[in-house]
Specification:
The protein is α+β, with helices and mostly antiparallel strands and 248 residues long. It is built from 1 helix and 12 strands. A hairpin with a 5-residue loop joins strand 8 and strand 9. The N and C termini lie far apart (91 Å).
């Protein structure tokens, strides 16, 4: 066999090998994409449908509150259910500023889906969805609420609020100490208007992760803007959860 023929055969073999490798790479890429799609579909399929929140008097949640603009830890907040009455939760919320030992407490009232009805200063009608969910809770759910928020004490302040909520995902959330919860990711957008100051439009974007395992959100980010200029952004992260019967 001549050198020329040998070179041609070697070149053909290399070309065939390259074609085989290229085809194999394409097959692997297609398989990888198919696996990713299957994994995505599997993740979606395992998301539960929550039709009830199992809350009991004595349940309590402790959160760390951080100013996401400065990075400073602002406070610790403990929410304790004191009573369940007329399809509402009465909750004592105790706030302790970071680095201090003196706390302050306030009573808050929520509906059975953790939407805020009232606190020390404000009355919401109907309940405000920025802290809660809508049952049944499931992926892809969306709802809208128009409500009013009225200040209880002088000076009189009245807000009209248009809120839109949607359930975006069901995903693991990793918190401090490598604690992980499977949670629904919700986004609530609100626009607040006041007839006394029509030139000022307040908007808020709330992103929260509701974990069925603890019957409440485990993380919540609240961003507030005035005339589309950032005013504040805070993060609440769950650092402890306990049920009344856990101490018995």
């Amino acid at each position: 066999m001549s050198r020329i023929s040998l070179r041609r055969m070697m070149a053909m073999a290399i070309a065939l090998t390259c074609v085989h490798i290229s085809a194999q790479a394409e097959d692997n890429s297609a398989a990888s994409q198919a696996n990713k799609l299957a994994e995505s579909q599997d993740t979606t399929s395992i998301a539960p449908v929550v039709d009830k929140i199992d809350v009991r008097p004595g349940d309590r949640w402790t959160y760390q509150v951080i100013d996401d603009i400065t990075g400073e830890t602002k406070s610790t907040v403990v929410h304790t259910v004191t009573e369940i009455k007329d399809k509402t939760y009465s909750v004592q919320s105790t706030f302790t500023p970071y680095g201090q030992s003196v706390s302050s407490s306030a009573l808050q009232v929520f509906d059975e889906s953790w939407n805020l009805i009232e606190d020390q200063l404000w009355m919401q009608n109907p309940a405000n969805p920025s802290t809660g969910i809508q049952l049944p809770l499931k992926l892809g759910a969306e709802w809208k609420v128009h409500l009013t928020s009225n200040r209880k004490n002088p000076p009189e302040v009245h807000f009209n609020i248009d809120a839109t909520a949607q359930v975006l995902a069901y995903e693991p959330v990793i918190l401090k100490f490598n604690k992980t919860y499977d949670a629904f990711k919700l986004e609530v957008d609100e626009t607040l208007t006041n007839s006394a100051t029509p030139s000022s439009v307040i908007t808020s974007k709330v992103t929260m992760w509701f974990a069925p395992a603890v019957n409440r959100y485990v993380k919540r980010i609240v961003e507030s803007r005035i005339n589309d200029r950032l005013q504040s952004r805070g993060i609440e992260t769950l650092i402890a959860y306990a049920r009344r019967h856990d101490d018995n």
